[in-house]
Design goal:
424 residues, OB fold (Dihydrolipoamide Acetyltransferase, E2P), BirA Bifunctional Protein, domain 2, 8-stranded mixed β-sheet, 5-stranded mixed β-barrel, 14 helices, elongated, binds 4-amino-1,4-dioxobutan-2-aminium adenosine-5'-monophosphate
Length: 424
């Protein structure tokens, strides 16, 4: 068999018709007839129907080959309207590389079973498309922050402080003192801005979430940014620009993926700044609820549907949010924090202006019943040239759910990790 292989995508072209090509991939489907065997072959780029005639030397191997076997094929390309991708490979030569055992995934299997065989289900057309969109989202986030002059910066994963409350901390066994997996890059990033001013990361975070929902994982990825001299309004503007940049990028680079996922992208195409801004108190009025009410994901989606665009939900009661958020000087019962709510999902990011003043931070630690001695180094940052600063964390999986239209967070990650699912 020839060494020069073409991608399937590249041979689905009128210019290739009549030409001899060599492709390789896996058997996606197989249909036997008396005189013909039809294989649908997939590689990472696309699908093509391959036809093997009974009188060809490939017939014996075609009879033997099974679903998900890997193989190399040579043959001529023919335009064929009835084939799934419009072209057909008329096979002269077929070489089986890895003959597959009976593939356990067939039609109509439960979600639970598909999660048990995730290492095999990863090959599904749906997951392939989603993972490609996800990859373009990562690329766009890096491009955006580099374009804006941010430096990529890493925080440790082992931490001794809670950033987002003690209830979801993952304790790590094996040390003689309490150590946790990081819930967020933020606290150590706040130290970094005194050197680098504008920083970002794309990194995993860990939360021991006990609830079973369609939008929580125990291990998820966050794009986070932190910037010196940036106020709350500046933060929201920057976040809007980031989201629009990512959306424009995937619209350009993932047309094929969206088509295969049947994702109608009209809503993404018409997305523009500014997003809606809604104070918590005004959201309560719309929902007919009282101060202190904790919005559910259903409430969030309802609000977005009402306003018809993403919403920055702002000015939450101080004790409802995190200890580091700056109270609004004009409405000190509330904080300069914002959750971004996206259509069909609800919250996809959380950000705020940070407390800069040492005394204010001490007061906040008390309100949240956190011990000052656990936050000694973090307190230091308020003693040595403190500056106004703001930052945010964007949940990559939730963003990808929105962009791809997937209904469950487990659909947008290769190997989901939850309280109930830690393998494969
Ligand atoms: O709102 P959160 O908790 O904010 C922070 O972690 C801040 N320290 C970020 C910062 O300011 N640098 O989390 C940020 C986002 C949420 O809006 C949500 O999209 C996502 O992270 N998120 C989760 N995604 C999946 N599974 C979970 N268990 C998540 N918890 C939060």
């Amino acid at each position: 068999m020839a060494a020069e292989f073409s991608s399937i995508e590249s041979v689905l072209d009128d210019k290739q018709a009549g030409k001899l090509v060599h492709i390789r991939g896996w058997v996606h489907r197989k249909r036997d007839q008396k005189e013909l065997i039809f294989l649908v072959i997939r590689d990472s780029t696309d699908l093509i129907q391959a036809v093997i005639k009974k009188d060809s030397k490939a017939w014996k191997d075609a009879e033997k080959i099974t679903i998900e076997s890997s193989c190399e094929l040579s043959g001529k390309i023919k335009k064929e309207e009835r084939a799934p991708t419009g072209y057909e490979l008329q096979v002269d030569d077929l070489k089986i590389i890895g003959l597959a055992e009976r593939f356990p995934i067939t039609k109509d299997l439960s979600e639970e079973f598909l999660r048990d065989v995730r290492h095999l289900w990863l090959r599904s057309r749906k997951l392939t498309q989603v993972l490609r969109v996800r990859s373009e989202v990562f690329r766009a986030i890096h491009d955006f922050y580099h374009k804006e002059g941010f430096t990529e910066y890493q925080s440790p994963i082992f931490t001794t402080q809670a950033c987002e409350g003690g209830s979801t901390l993952f304790e790590v066994k094996g040390f003689d003192r309490k150590v946790y997996l990081s819930q967020s890059w933020q606290l150590h990033a706040e130290a970094g801005i005194f050197a680098l001013e504008k920083i970002y990361t794309v990194a995993p975070m860990f939360r021991a979430e006990k609830s079973r929902t369609t939008r929580h994982l125990a291990e998820a990825w966050l794009a986070e940014s932190e910037a010196a001299w940036l106020d709350f309004d500046g933060l929201l503007k920057q976040e809007e620009e980031l989201i629009i940049y990512v959306v424009q990028h995937v619209l350009k680079t993932c047309k094929k993926e969206f088509k295969e996922l049947s994702r109608d992208t009209k809503d993404l195409e018409s997305l523009k700044a500014p997003f809606a801004r809604l104070k918590y108190a005004d959201a309560l009025k719309k929902l007919g609820k009282k101060w202190g009410y904790d919005l559910t994901d259903k409430d969030e989606r309802e609000l977005v549907a009402q306003l018809g665009k993403p919403i920055f939900l702002t000015h939450f009661p101080r004790d409802m949010k995190a200890f580091y958020m700056k109270p609004d000087p004009k409405e000190p019962k509330t904080v300069l924090g914002a959750d971004l709510l996206a259509p069909g999902i609800g919250e996809i990011s959380g950000g705020s202006e940070r407390i800069v003043d040492e005394k204010e931070l001490q007061k906040s630690l008390k309100i949240f019943k956190l011990k000052e001695e656990d936050y000694g180094w973090y307190m230091d940052l308020r003693k040595f040239g403190s500056v106004p600063h703001s930052g945010m964390g964007l949940g990559i999986e939730r963003l990808v759910m929105w962009l791809t239209g997937m209904p469950h967070i487990m659909d947008v990650v290769s190997f989901p990790r939850t309280l109930y699912r830690l393998s494969p």
